Fold this sequence. Notes:
This protein is an alpha/beta fold. Helix content is about 30%, strand content about 25%. Helix 6 links the parallel strand 9 and strand 10. The longest helix is centred in the first third of the chain and has 24 residues.
Amino acid sequence: MKKFDVCVIGGGPAGYASAMRALDFKKSVLLIEKDKLGGAGIHQGALWSKTWWEISREARMIGLHSKAFNLGSNGFHYSKVRNEVMSAVDSRLKLLTSHMDRMNESFGNELFEFRKGKGKVVGKNEVEIAGDDITETIEADYIILATGSVPRKLGHLPIDEKTVFTSDGLDNLAAFPKSIVIVGAGVIGCEFATIFSNFGKTKVHLIDKGDRILPFEDEDVVQVIEKNLEEKGVLIHRNSKLMGMKIEKGEVVYDLEYTDGKKETFKVEKALVSVGRVPQYNDLIAEGIDVEVDDRGIKDDLTQTTVPNIYAVGDITADISLVNVGELEGRYAVERIFGKPEQPLIYKNISTIMFLDPEVAGVGMNENQAKQAGLDYKVVSLDYGCIPRATAMRTTEGFIKILVTNDEKLNILGMRVVGEHASSAIQAVALLISQDKSIIELAELIHPHPSIIEGIQEVGRIFMGKPLLKPHVLREIIQCQVYVSGVYSELVI
């Protein structure tokens, strides 16, 4: 039986990061992947869908300005767009594969192995690998579980990945559907509503059980996204419950009941069920291996499971399901096993991007979360129209909103940015949140000009009482408030 220092089950972002970090410690590593290297992070998730989003944004702009530039009709061909998306996926996959294949040559030894097959923990230090032609068992001092997640399925819906899809099956589409209903108004559902509506080929219906989409986000963020979706023809079914769905003559028929008792029936060409993801650990751990699991995922204490030498990272745990979090956890687990972690594993400064219209980026708390935590805070919201770079791009829709502690320290609690280049504005704030630092640090920094992050500098100056643009003069585009004991009042600058 071959022996390794560490065996990683799952070749997605978290597993790949774990394996590569273990090599830094000169440990022998076996990486096992049953399906596609890179996992959903490349093939059905982040890279795949965000490439669709990037191309759809360009398509949207061409559609809006085609007459001005004499471009004619928006003749977007699904097959050509899909080929471009798959080219991006293939490019990333080739990079990871080449990197992996040349690993031992680089290190000058045979520390790394990759096996294609289904990994299963059959003993405290044993992993069974079931491949196409052979099943073998290896021994490892440490085991890292990184098998990710799969789309949640609702048993009463006819999901066949041909007419009714999950996000994992959307690549089966052969053309832009004339119409599609999306079940679920969370991040993934709203991202695909944005993508389909951007191309202008598909009438999108979006089912929302509440009175607004993205229920976890602040109302000012949601208002911008809803307005843009509806301007592109998206029909948002608010306060609705899906009572039934069936496939009739190759089309989707679905029934809704609203909170006021009204009932309606709709017919569309396709459906996407987007109601979250669930951890993938079926048949991963043999009976008798005391790794504690519940319906949210494998239970862990800073990546370590209830079996001391077995660790779990990424979507398979009950933590935040993001590629960057999975990679962070994978690296942390290895550092905890073979050394001392260079940084503590914290989640309060996790940066997120929602690929909507416009882009939304965030880090730390939003106002809803601060209120739920019982915090008092100061908040400033600065309209994109105040930022020279946004003006230069001719895209001034959006805002920067920052929450700080209600004291003289002005430590950053969180930020939301809605608008072009939103994701480029959050990293410095994420660093300050992790260090419990103040917005003053950024207010006094010299920022590049013109840039979106100058908006953060101006917000910092507002908190400090020395802004370039005076909020009491520009009340319609600069809002300054303090929230104390459940009550808002004007923040006097």
